[in-house]
């Protein structure tokens, strides 16, 4: 039986794209409290079903799949640039293909304007009108208004006309940054990427008997199952260890492990892997915001997916990528492995010294690379102890020397020393759990 929350989400998902909704409307039509309606709308926003625009309201938009995550809707552009919608609000749900900067004569500019584009331009009324007629939206910079003719045309064509106070260069940079950030997010594997909607999870119910567990083991060859109630809400996990010594007529509810560790579809696979390694868990239930079971992920499948992604080309650069990009691997006088590079301006704090956060990122990355050279596996860092730290100024060259102290099947310890001009400026001990491939 569906909860009120789930009914509201299903109602929102069935609405046409561009449909405007409100808390009061949902509460009135579905006969629920405004608090329940508000929480469901916020959940729909988190799921990408709706987008809220200031002075316009909440609009039903198309939920993006992972392959199109970098595509922005006009509603999202409004929020990115802190804009105001002057007309065409019915088209806010539409996606823009590309944006065009109108910094040229009108005749030349129009050649680049195509349906689905967004023209970024100042107070050029003719450009606004012609752009709309060509099927593109308009973003007016500098805080300027549009004519009534343009606003009416925008409403008729359902193409947004947006105004913001920023200049053209700043607006273009803000939109570029939003797309760039999404490209990085696109590469981060989430738990939902592993879930197969066509393959429901095998589970047991609270009132099932232990004999049902043994039957499931024979049918599926699994030894761990989530336990749910009649509404599909997760209550526990049961394993072969839990049922040992119990009568076959005993209820599963009496032998299961209550309040198990769970993840949501939006949890990153890296975080899920760390949780599994840290807690020694082989299977993690995946639940929604109401704690209803959506599926399960196994430790083996998570590790395989992460290893596959490491082999794929990366589009966007993260802060860590930028930090380690300037460091190269070299051989020391005694043949030991070293990493050396120069402290760039972006790596410093407000005093011009190497930032502690950047330093710990360098140490962690070097320790990870050192383990990968000696052990064919991945690493989940447990602890980093920085017990020597001296300031290193801008433009100074540093050397990072990792030395493996201990490396077993599950635990690795690496001593990392950082040098400048043959003097130690930092020492750290990195302890990690090693995941075999």
From TrEMBL:
Pfam families: 4HBT, CBS, DRTGG. InterPro entries: CBS_dom, CBS_dom_sf, Diverse_CBS-Domain, DRTGG, HotDog_dom_sf, Ser_kin/Pase_Hpr-like_N_sf, Thioestr_dom, WH-like_DNA-bd_sf. Keywords: CBS domain. It comes from the Bacteria. Residues 195-254, 256-312 form the CBS domain. SUPFAM superfamilies: CBS-domain pair (SSF54631), HprK N-terminal domain-like (SSF75138), Thioesterase/thiol ester dehydrase-isomerase (SSF54637), Winged helix' DNA-binding domain (SSF46785). PANTHER family: CBS DOMAIN-CONTAINING PROTEIN (PTHR43080:SF2), CBS DOMAIN-CONTAINING PROTEIN CBSX3, MITOCHONDRIAL (PTHR43080). This is Predicted transcriptional regulator containing CBS domains. It comes from Melghirimyces algeriensis.
């Amino acid at each position: 039986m569906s909860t009120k929350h789930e009914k509201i989400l299903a109602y929102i998902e069935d609405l046409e794209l561009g449909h405007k909704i409100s808390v009061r409307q949902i509460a009135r039509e579905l006969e629920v409290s405004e608090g329940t309606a508000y929480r469901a709308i916020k959940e729909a926003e988190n799921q990408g079903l709706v987008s809220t625009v200031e002075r316009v309201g909440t609009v039903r938009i198309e939920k993006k799949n992972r392959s199109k995550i970098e595509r922005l809707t006009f509603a999202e552009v409004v929020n990115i640039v802190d804009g105001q919608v002057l007309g065409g609000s019915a088209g806010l749900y539409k996606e823009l293909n590309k944006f065009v900067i109108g910094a040229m004569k009108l005749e030349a500019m129009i050649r680049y304007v195509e349906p689905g584009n967004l023209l970024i331009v100042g107070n050029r009324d003719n450009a606004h009108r012609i752009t709309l007629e060509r099927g593109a939206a308009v973003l007016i910079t500098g805080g300027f208004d549009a004519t009534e003719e343009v606003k009416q045309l925008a409403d008729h064509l359902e193409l947004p006309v947006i105004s913001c106070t920023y200049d053209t260069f700043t607006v273009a940079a803000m939109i570029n940054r939003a797309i760039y950030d999404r490209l990085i997010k696109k590469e981060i594997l989430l738990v939902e990427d592993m879930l197969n909607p066509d393959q429901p999870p095998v589970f047991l119910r609270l009132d099932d008997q232990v004999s049902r567990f043994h039957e499931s083991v024979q049918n599926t060859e699994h030894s761990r199952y989530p336990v749910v109630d009649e509404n599909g809400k997760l209550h526990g996990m049961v394993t072969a260890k839990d049922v040992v010594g119990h009568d076959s007529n005993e209820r599963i509810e009496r032998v299961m492990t209550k309040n198990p560790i769970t993840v949501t579809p939006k949890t990153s696979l890296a975080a899920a892997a760390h949780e599994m390694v840290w807690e020694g868990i082989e299977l993690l239930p995946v639940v929604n915001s109401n704690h209803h079971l959506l599926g399960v992920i196994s430790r083996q499948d998570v590790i395989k997916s992460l290893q596959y992604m490491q082999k794929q080309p990366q589009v966007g650069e993260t802060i860590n990528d930028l930090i380690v990009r300037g460091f190269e691997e070299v051989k020391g006088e005694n043949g030991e492995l070293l990493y050396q590079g120069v402290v760039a301006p972006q790596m410093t704090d407000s005093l011009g010294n190497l930032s502690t956060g950047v330093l710990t990122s360098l140490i962690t990355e070097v320790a990870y690379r050192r383990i990968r050279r000696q052990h064919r596996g991945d690493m989940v860092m447990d602890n980093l102890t920085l017990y020597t730290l001296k300031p290193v100024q801008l433009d100074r060259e540093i050397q990072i020397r990792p030395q493996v102290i201990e490396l077993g099947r599950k635990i690795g310890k690496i001593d990392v020393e950082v040098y400048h001009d043959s003097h130690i400026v930092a020492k750290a001990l990195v302890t990690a759990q090693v995941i075999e491939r």
